[in-house]
Specification:
This protein is α/β, with parallel strands linked by helices and 275 residues long. The protein has a single domain, classed as Rossmann fold, CATH 3.40.50.720. It has nine helices and nine strands. The structure holds nicotinamide-adenine-dinucleotide.
Length: 275
């Protein structure tokens, strides 16, 4: 098992939430970090909080050429061999299938899945050439179960999971690994940054109200998520579940593949009563 500590780490979506926390944690473990995000302000905030070597690039992960250029730049800059490429940038939209705006579904799919494939296309040749390193792609618990009013997000995250699991098999014997991250609820800006049309219970009129409710149920801090992801990578895990809710969703999907939402709905009701 090779450690990633001290090796260069590439992280997309590093201007907020999980990506920001992973950047800070890895930098604290001696990793030079190359950070990308389309939110320049967030990116600068992350960079300013890191003591060691940092490279930042404002880019949209849907832009394959932009990621290819970034990969060339990272190769030139990297003070240590590349250890990790974390394709993590992601977005969501809250809307029902019957009334869905196709352009919002497309946006979610292009960022969440297209961003991952673009990142892999840009960086995998470098890892294969050096015969080491880990590609880590962020899926979700919604890459394990279907959830109402999250259809495009679920589709994109199931796609990330399938793509990464296929890649994992292709990489056997190459010295390079691939892992999928399945976070449960993590207290980040994912809902604040979402597009909003309707939620599944019809309780919210706007994204602010949905974000407040999400903050109530999301149990894991970004720092704890970063710790679980870092330790999972170091342990060589191919599937990294973040939070006890992620473990529960995973078990439900496996053991009650036709009934998991009955249980999730009941748990949601209990959780809300307990608040
Ligand atoms: N927070 C959760 O509960 C949760 C659960 C499961 C999965 N995830 C996944 O974790 C990943 C990180 O999300 P987060 O929760 O930290 O949310 P976040 O909104 O706090 O961070 C996401 C970051 O990605 C960036 N980003 C979005 N679109 C981009 C684009 N096209 N190009 C470049 N950067 C872009 C945003 O600017 C932001 O800085 C996402 O893939 C998300 O789907 C989050």
């Amino acid at each position: 098992m090779t450690t990633i500590n001290g090796r260069t780490a590439v992280i997309t979506g590093a201007g907020s939430g999980i990506g920001q926390a992973v950047a800070r944690r890895l930098a604290a473990h001696g990793c030079p970090v190359a950070l990308a995000d389309w939110n320049e302000e967030g990116l600068e905030e992350t960079a300013a909080s890191i003591g060691g070597p940092v490279l930042t690039r404002k880019l949209d992960v849907r832009d394959r050429q932009g990621l290819m250029t970034f990969a060339a730049e990272v190769t030139e800059w990297a003070p240590a061999p590349l250890g990790l490429v974390f394709n993590n940038a992601g977005v969501t939209v809250l809307q029902g299938v019957a009334d869905a705006a196709p352009e919002d579904d497309q946006w979610v799919f292009d960022v969440n899945f297209g961003g991952v494939t673009n990142g892999v296309t840009a960086f995998l040749p470098i890892l294969l050439e050096q015969r080491s390193g880990v590609i880590v792609n962020t899926s979700s618990v919604f890459g394990l179960v279907g959830f109402p009013h999250q259809s495009a997000y679920c589709a994109s995250k199931f796609a990330v999971r399938g793509y990464t699991e296929a890649l994992r098999q292709e990489l056997r014997g190459t010295g390079v690994r691939a892992a999928t991250v399945h976070p449960g609820g993590v207290k980040t800006n994912i809902v604040v940054n979402a597009r909003f049309r309707a939620d599944h219970r019809g309780e919210h009129q706007d994204v602010q109200s949905a974000a407040t409710a999400f903050a109530d149920v999301a149990r894991t801090t970004p720092e704890k998520a970063a710790e679980i992801i870092h330790k999972g990578i170091e342990a060589g895990r191919p599937r990294i579940r973040v939070g006890s809710d992620a473990v529960l969703f995973d078990l439900l999907a496996r053991f009650a593949p036709n009934r998991y939402y009955d249980v999730i709905e009941r748990l949601e009701t209990l959780l809300r009563r307990g608040r």
